[in-house]
Amino acid sequence: MSRVEVDTARLPLLLGELRLPAIARFWPEIAERSGREGWPAVRFLATLAELEVAERTQRRIERHLVEAHLPPDKTLDGFDFSHVPMLSRARVTAIASGDAWLAKGDNLLLFGPPGSGKTHIAAAIGRALIEGGYRVLFTRTTDLVQRLQAARQQLILEAAITKLDRYDLLVLDDLSYVRKDQAETSVLFELIGRRYERRSMLITANQPFAEWNKVFPDPAMTIAAVDRLVHHAVVVEMNVDSYRQKAAIIRKARAATIKRDNQPKDPPEPDRQAQTANLPLASDNQPRQSSLPSAPNHHPD
Ligand code: ADP
Ligand code: MG
After folding, report:
1. Do 141 and 25 fall into the same domain?
2. 47 lies in the same domain as 82
3. pTM of the predicted model, to two decimals?
4. Ligand 1, from 243, 246, 249, 285: best to mutate by most atoms within 8 Å of Cβ?
5. Please, which of 28, 129, 189, 207 could form a disulfide with 211 given CB 3.0 to 4.6 Å?
6. Which residue CA neighbors atom 25 of ligand 1 most closely?
7. Contact present, 30 and 17 (Cβ < 8 Å)
8. Which of 86, 116, 120, 284 to mutate to test the pocket of ligand 1 (most atoms within 8 A of CB)?
9. Distance from the alpha carbon of residue 118 to the mean position of ligand 1, in angstroms
10. Domain end: 21, 44, 66, which one?
11. Whose CA is nearest to atom 26 of ligand 1?
């Protein structure tokens, strides 16, 4: 019986040329298993193709995570939803799956005082979307405004804004920190106008719309910007205490309890000590009313 000689020495070269690094890495192992288990050729080929695609997807997600510039360690798993009753886990999970709202270019606006968790939840949603295959850019609004302003001076503002189209979602953190001159804020206005009904934005701000006249010095421009942003948007007012302060108060309370429990005259009961160690960070489960603005908005579901 004649055997067709296969020149396996050339394989790495061929696979390299075809840019199939996963197949190049895995084929010896899969070929061995396939021979041992008597796989049909089609199964062998399909297994290698699946491996290549899976690895390619993973590499793409890693690239997108790098380019997104997300603040590190802010995940949905690390977010304590009991602190923000107006933002249920189910609702955020739906938002973080992307789908309909990103396809329509809808927006998400998060308002709340410092420490209420806006940056955390915005970054966590961004991360989840990237893991789901979307492209996201996270930026402080002032940084982006500066970049666009520089582009405008070089007469390449159009191109710079078009470049941002590659992102399914732009996260503009802390919009209300933008101040400065008319020229700066009009680049922001231009960006909002260009993404309107096409590409989504997630905007966080300490100040609700009433204060945005400080961002857009011309009131007509403020109205026009707000109009476009809220036309298809979910607006969430995170009117809660600072999570930092809450965490600090609980840490203090915990330390005081442990100190008290450790005093020799009052030895701690084992059960009580265990409870203290597990003191939950957020104990306030009382739902608070969210006061949505009267502007038309709808939920991306
Ligand atoms: P904001 O952007 O509204 O000022 P941040 O998102 O920066 O607030 O939150 C301040 C700190 O508290 C961050 O370290 C953040 O991770 C944490 N934090 C805020 N809210 C929560 C929450 N609900 N669960 C867990 N950590 C939170
Ligand atoms: Mg913030």
Report:
1. no
2. no
3. 0.79
4. 243
5. 207
6. 79
7. no
8. 120
9. 7
10. 66
11. 79
Q: Which ligand 1 atom sits nearest the alpha carbon of residue 81?
A: 23
Confidence (pLDDT) at 4: 57
User: What's the domain range around 30?
Assistant: 9-66
Span 178-203, mean pLDDT? 86
pLDDT at 283: 31
Show the ligand 1 pocket: residues with CB < 6 angstroms. 74, 78-80, 83-84, 112, 114-120, 243-244
180 plus 162 within the same structural domain: yes
Whichever domain contains 129, its CATH number is 3.40.50.300
The closest of 192, 106, 176 to 141, measured between CA atoms, is: 176
Edge-to-edge strand ranges of the sheet holding 233-237: 136-140, 169-173, 200-205, 107-111, 233-237
Domain boundary, last residue among 20, 45, 66? 66
The pLDDT of residue 251 is above 70: yes
d(CA 176, CA 188): 12
Please check whether residue 176 lies inside any domain of the structure.
yes
Handedness of CA 13, 17, 23, 24 (dihedral sign): positive
Question: What is the pLDDT averaged over residues 28-48?
Answer: 96
Residues 62 and 201 reside in one and the same domain: no
pLDDT classification of 58: cutoffs 50, 70, 90: very high
Shared domain for 144 and 240, answered yes or no, is: yes
Where does the pLDDT of residue 273 fall: very low under 50, low under 70, confident under 90, or very high at 90 and above?
very low
- Provide the domain count of the chain: 2
How does the average pLDDT of the chain come out, rounded? 84
Q: Where are the beta strands (DSSP E) in the chain?
A: 107-111, 136-140, 169-173, 200-205, 233-237
Half-sphere exposure (CA, 13 Å, Cβ side) for 181?
3
